[in-house]
Every structure is written in C-alpha cells, then in structure tokens.
Amino acid sequence: QSVLTQPPSVSAAPGQKVTISCSGSSSNIGNNYVSWYQQLPGTAPKLLIYDNNKRPSGIPDRFSGSKSGTSATLGITGLQTGDEADYYCGTWDSSLSVLFGGGTKLTVL
Amino acid sequence: QLQLQESGPGLVKPSETLSLTCTVSGGSISSSSYYWGWIRQPPGKGLEWIGSIYYSGSTYYNPSLKSRVTISVDTSKNQFSLKLSSVTAADTAVYYCARKGGGVINRNWFDPWGQGTLVTVSS
C-alpha cells in the first residue's frame, strides 16, 4: 500500500482527455515537488513532468501536470494508442525518502 | 546524450549480497548539478526508491532499506554502485539506475533511466 494513492486504472477513447490523480499529505506532496513518469510495457520509466508542472525537452504539450494542496494531477489530451502505459507520480516525504505512487494503468479504448 | 547502463549478476542466493554497477556515458558523473540513484521494481509491482549518491560520496537511503544498503561512486570510472546485503526473495526485482535532478534533497526527479536489470534471489 503506497503512501501516495493513485487509481489502479483509467481508460478513455483515442483523441479524448484523461486525468490521473496522486493523493498524498502535507508530509509529502503538500510541501514538495511532484514528478510524473510513463512506463511503456517492458521498458524503463521515462520522466514526463518535474517540479509539479514542467515538461522536459521532447515531451509533447499533450502532457501536463498540476498540484493543489496535497494532491497532484497528470493530464493527457489527444490520447493515442501509444500512450497506453503505466504512470507513476513521485515526490519527497518528511520520512526522508523518495516516494512513488502505486501506479495507474492507462488503457486507450 | 547521457546514457546509463546497469550490470551485475542476475541471480543471487538468499542471505548473500546483491552487487550492481551503473556506468554513465555521454556525460560526467562529477557534474555538480546532479545526484545519482537506484530504484527497483518487483515483477508486476510499482517503483521503490533505494537511495541516491552525489559524486562527492554523500548518500541518502530509503529508511526501510538503510540497514542493508551501501551506494558508492567511482568518479575515475564514471560509475556508481549498489550493494544490498542479506537478500531474500522479496528483493527480487528489476533494478534501475538513474540520474537525479532537482539539486536539493527534497526536490527529486529521475531522468534518464538505465534499461534496468532483473535480479532474482533464489537458491
């Protein structure tokens, strides 16, 4: 059971928009930066969002991040079949540890 | 561009020590802007941060693994290494190395990642 709570799965049709939530507390998300990762099947995770809402070079603007209080959200617009993957949030916790959420499996119907 | 590659035994016996090395290419491990980290993923499960190291040798570890983990750096070889002692079947996982951005200890993002290496703990 992860300290950061993500929905196990989300789904949407191609071209649609989906959001993935990451819920924490004041010990982690509430006072620290959040990052998001995409893990395509059989591959290593890839950074999508850092510092709550910044995109690394090469990440399309279809991907966006936001944070409010003790929760963070990853948004993906214009869904493509190639977006089917597991998505993880990450942040620092006052227990002196980097935490990751349990992951959310995105299905593009 | 920066690339990381994990190497080490794919099979470790219970109670022994798991040892992995991450070789960094396309950039210097001695960059003052970054730490370097290890993350693992048990089969079919989520990500777990193990620990991170600065090129100076400064480290910080996951409290749940701290008693068994040692991360070290060899700047002359552009490598950093992981040792996890007294392993059990619960330590079976894909082990990834990655560059940690963000500078300060409480600002963490990992990019890029190595391809990962599966380590199985079994007799």
Describe the structure.
The complex is a heterodimer of chains A (109) and B (123). Chain A is built from no helices and 9 strands. By secondary structure, chain A is an all-beta fold. In chain A, a hairpin with a 3-residue loop joins β7 (85-93) and β8. Chain A is globular. The model of chain A has no long low-confidence stretch (mean pLDDT 96). Chain B has no helices and 11 strands. In chain B, a hairpin with a 4-residue loop joins β7 and β8 (79-84).
Set down the secondary structure blueprint.
The complex is a heterodimer of chains A (109) and B (123).
Chain A (H helix, E strand, L loop, with lengths): L8 E4 L5 E6 L10 E6 L6 E4 L13 E6 L2 E6 L8 E9 L3 E4 L3 E5 L1
Parallel strand pairs in A: 1-9
Antiparallel strand pairs in A: 2-6, 3-4, 3-7, 5-6, 7-8, 7-9
Chain B lengths: L2 E5 L3 E2 L5 E8 L9 E7 L6 E6 L5 E3 L7 E6 L4 E6 L8 E9 L7 E5 L3 E5 L2
Brief summary:
Chain A has 109 residues and is an all-beta fold. Chain A has strands spanning 9-12, 18-23, 34-39, 46-49, 63-68, 71-76, 85-93, 97-100, 104-108.
Largest sheet of chain A: 6 strands, mixed
The rounded Rg of chain A comes to: 13 Å
Average predicted confidence as pLDDT of chain A: 96
Largest interface: A-B, 26 and 26 residues
Number of helices of chain B: 0
Cα radius of gyration of chain B in angstroms: 14 Å
Structural class of chain A: mainly beta
Q: Which structural class fits the helix and strand makeup of chain B?
A: mainly beta
**What series of H and E elements makes up the topology of chain B?**
EEEEEEEEEEE
Strand content of chain B: over 45%
- Low-confidence segments of chain A: none
Tell me which oligomeric state these chains represent: heterodimer
Number of strands of chain B: 11
- Estimate what percentage of residues of chain A fall within beta strands: over 45%
Helix residue percentage of chain B: under 10%
